[in-house]
Amino acid sequence: MALFSRENFPYLPFTINAMNAPRNVAVIVGSLRKDSFSRKMAHALAAVAPASLRLQIVEIGPLPLYNQDLDGADPPAAWVSFRERIRASDAVLFVTPEYNRSVPAALKNALDVGSRPYGKSAWNGKPGAVVGVSQGALGAFGANHHLRQSLVFLNVPTLQQPEAYIGGAAGLFDANGTLSNESTRDFLRKFMEAFAAWIEVNQRR
Ligand code: FNR
Question: Which residue from 15, 24, 85, 146 has the highest number of Cβ atoms inside 10 Å of its Cβ?
């Protein structure tokens, strides 16, 4: 069965040509931790993504804390290159843990950096999706929905279904950090297929 068949995505207004150039998806990982489960999950998502998508992690660790005083004629180089990477992408995928029922500060900082200068937000109009990852059972639900609040304001049309709250993350990967849970892999594949369709429907032309 074709990936983007009308049977799979009956709400699509048109048939997607899977031969089109791949869409570049900037992947933002909310954790800076070396052994982060969110980072492992980002790699697992890239591994099952349809061929129509090219996923690349855009690092947020090097971004200095946003300070409007620095955002003049010569802003920090890390901000400039981050904004350029987001602007050059066709879509954004957020893979994040939950910190105190919200997103980690590093992720919020990246949202803020990308949103400025005023009127030139790099996020504007980019189709997006959110995957919450936690070791507990709630799958970073709070972070996922706090993030969505910002994405509304940033005009990132964000995939609604399926929602992705991945709990029990510590038990999903093998010693090499590769996803070893088959049902999670199936879910991630369906999620990325839905995201690919979402990107086509919401792509700015
Ligand atoms: C956490 N953790 C956590 N977990 C959760 O489910 N809800 C929460 O509100 C929080 N709060 C929180 C705050 C802070 C400061 C830390 C350091 C951790 C646990 C956290 O989700 C867990 O450590 C994840 O494994 C972190 O994600 P990475 O680094 O594995 O991607």
Answer: 146
Query: Which of 37, 134, 172 for mutating ligand 1's site (highest number of atoms within 8 Å of CB)?
Result: 134
DSSP bridge partners of 133: 166
Q: What is the pLDDT of residue 1?
A: 37
Q: What is the pLDDT of residues 28-46, one digit of tens each?
A: 999 999 999 999 999 999 9
- Contact predicate 49/174, CB 8 Å: no
The helix-helix angle for 37-48 and 182-202 (nearest 10°) equals 70
> Helix, strand, coil % (nearest 5) of the chain?
35, 15, 50
Sheet holding 128-133, edge to edge: 53-57, 23-29, 91-96, 128-133, 164-166
**Mean pLDDT throughout 59-86?**
98
CA–centroid distance, 35 to ligand 1, in Å, is: 13
Pocket lining: 37 vs ligand 1, CB cutoff 6 Å? yes
- Which residues pair with residue 29 across a beta bridge? 95
Residue nearest to atom 29 of ligand 1 (CA): 36
Q: Is the pLDDT of residue 205 over 70?
A: no
Helix, strand, or coil here: 185? Answer: helix
